[in-house]
């Protein structure tokens, strides 16, 4: 946990979501965008018939004004959020988007939110995953898992969340895997994944309430079963156990984090691609990335003179 003085000297980053029927979602777009602009807030907020999902950053007063606007609406009166901090605003602009889903599984009808798994508070997570009868599953994508994960967790090796149902069909059986615990960055993916698992007949499904971010915020480092850093979808790339920006950099080719091992690969090209995207990089993208990196290097040389 940060001191109040340290937090006050930085920008507040707030992550939040809530699944709830919200048919009037489109009407909120412009009023919400106006509150964001007035408060100097940047980031992304998704609005859909199934609820809201967002990560925003800015001065505390501006971020709190956005959250207050959302909570002024009946469906989001009890909206929870996770906090972290950054020396700079880790987003280039503010986007408020209308979507069909705030989190899609890519399978028609999959992940219905009629019933979700059991929420497990961060304070109780260690006890749950210490149970040998529990199968622990990381519902995030492969490039996120590579940055950090919980001890003993299964990596589905998915490139996108839409691949998760296929992982379940190919690897899990409700009769054999009777007690499953899942987690993700902020809680939204594992909540929707838990609904999917229940629909598929899995009898006991648990998920980490508030996700990894809430766990890192709540559980002392000396008691933590988290290893590595936590990938985040903004310019910080990843945060450490203190929720401070880590040491990783982002790949311009795919947006994933570049680890020390990635830099040793023959498929790593600074500013162009990493082992995760090298083989799928089109010639057009390679040309653009090469030119961008050339301009960056020229600018660095001019600044050094």
Automatic annotation (TrEMBL):
Enzyme Commission number, as recorded: 1.14.-.-
GO biological process entries: tRNA modification
InterPro entries in the record: Rhodanese-like_dom, Rhodanese-like_dom_sf, TrhO, TRHO_N
Catalytic activity: uridine(34) in tRNA + AH2 + O2 = 5-hydroxyuridine(34) in tRNA + A + H2O
Keyword terms: Oxidoreductase, tRNA processing
GO MF terms, alphabetically ordered: oxidoreductase activity, acting on paired donors, with incorporation or reduction of molecular oxygen
UniProt KW Oxidoreductase keyword: yes
One Pfam family matching this protein: Rhodanese
Enzyme class, broadest EC rank: oxidoreductase
The family this protein is said to belong to: Belongs to the TrhO family.
Role of this protein: Catalyzes oxygen-dependent 5-hydroxyuridine (ho5U) modification at position 34 in tRNAs.
Name of this chain's protein: tRNA uridine(34) hydroxylase
Species of origin: Capsulimonas corticalis
Gene name per UniProt: trhO
